[in-house]
Amino acid sequence: MTYRNHWKKNLFRYLLFSVFVVFIFTCILNILPLTPDSCNCHEKVSRFKKASENGVKQFKISQYKLAVLVPFRDRFEELLQFAPHMKQFLDKQNIEYHIFILHQVDRFRFNRASLINVGFIHVQNHYDYIAMHDIDLLPLNENLSYGFPNNGPFHVSSPDLHPRYHYPTFIGGILLVNRKHYQAVNGMSNKYWGWGLEDDEFYVRLKEANLKVYRPENILTGSQNTFKHIHDKNVRKRDTIKCFNQREITRKRDRQTGLSNVSYKIEQVINMTIIDVPLTILNIALNCDKTITPWCECTKTNENKTP
């Protein structure tokens, strides 16, 4: 009897102790903060974009992030049209995007391709694909997709739809390229100072890499009403001067320059808003190696000279 009573008494103590331990443990769990893995609500909400359809607010989320890269110099009037138009257009699509204005601030001739290379380097760790986007070409047809180009580059402003350029290998205007494919071809050539031909050279890079260029299908509008072209050639004449041996060199495939060796300095990064459109301005100073591309500075006196 004595042993049995002693066992019961100890069992009762053990039960009380267990209850006490469970109670303390529960209290500790209740006051501890949630771990980061328990709730990433703010992170998820930040990736949602609000849209209004038929007066009903909806939340949208996209798997991929788009960086709209816009080469820029002395086009402020066009920018004032471009920014609100693109926001209104892209907000209707299930796309998470941001617009980057690639502002060339050096003294050299305009270099669209090098600016795009610099823009890509700046965004590549945070965005999944880019839109190489002319500032003077505004999409009008809402069926033009800016979605992720998984299989190959997607040429939004195809030759059948562009208001000016209709040759089969044309890929200028608006081209979507994912991060992997842009890196695979080493970006664009840095030799194209002045206007034209850089996109034709990029087409050859894509072809050599066996990357098919896809284009919009089942678009019911045509070359006159799919895009609005806001460039006034009488106000801003294109820099078409050719000097030194520029004409000869820029009609060949460039195997020397590209994404890996573009030379530049980002002098300033400015976050700003035009109306209600958030933008990031990159003030970019490009460098020119005149032993390779002496035509980065070109005047009438050295037009058509050889180095």
Automatic annotation (TrEMBL):
The keyword Protein biosynthesis does not apply. Pathway: Protein modification; protein glycosylation. GO terms for molecular function: metal ion binding; xylosylprotein 4-beta-galactosyltransferase activity. GO terms for cellular component: Golgi membrane. Its cofactor is Mn(2+). It is an enzyme of class 2 (transferase). Residues 61-146 form the Galactosyltransferase N-terminal domain. Keywords: Glycoprotein, Glycosyltransferase, Golgi apparatus, Manganese, Membrane, Metal-binding, Signal-anchor, Transferase, Transmembrane, Transmembrane helix. The keyword Transcription does not apply. The chain crosses the membrane at residues 12-32. Residues 153-229 form the Galactosyltransferase C-terminal domain. Its EC number is 2.4.1.-. InterPro entries: Galactosyl_T (IPR003859), Galactosyl_T_C (IPR027791), Galactosyl_T_N (IPR027995), Nucleotide-diphossugar_trans (IPR029044). It holds the Pfam family Glyco_transf_7N. Catalyzes the transfer of galactose onto proteins or lipids. This is Beta-1,4-N-acetylgalactosaminyltransferase. The lineage of its organism: Eukaryota, Metazoa, Ecdysozoa, Arthropoda, Hexapoda.
